[in-house]
Amino acid sequence: MKKKKVVIGLSGGVDSSIAAYKLLEQGYEVEALFMINWKDASVTIRGNCTWEEDLIVAKLVAKKLNIPLHIVDSSEQYMQKVADYMFAEYQRGRTPNPDVLCNREIKFDVFLDRVHEIGADYFATGHYARKEQVIIDGKPVYRLLAGSDKNKDQSYFLCQLSQAQLEKALFPIGDIEKPEVRRIAVELDLATAYRKDSQGLCFIGKVDLPTFLQQKLAPKEGNIILIPHKHFKKRKDLSLGSSREEVLQACESHHFAPQDGKIVGKHNGAHYFTIGQRRGLNVGGMKAPLFVIGTDVNENIIYVGMGKEHPGLFRSGLFIPAEDLHWVRPDMEMKAGESRDYLCRIRYRQALVEARLYRYEEGMYITFTEMQRGITPGQFAAWYDGEELIGSGVIA
Question: Does this model's pTM top 0.90?
Answer without folding.
Answer: yes
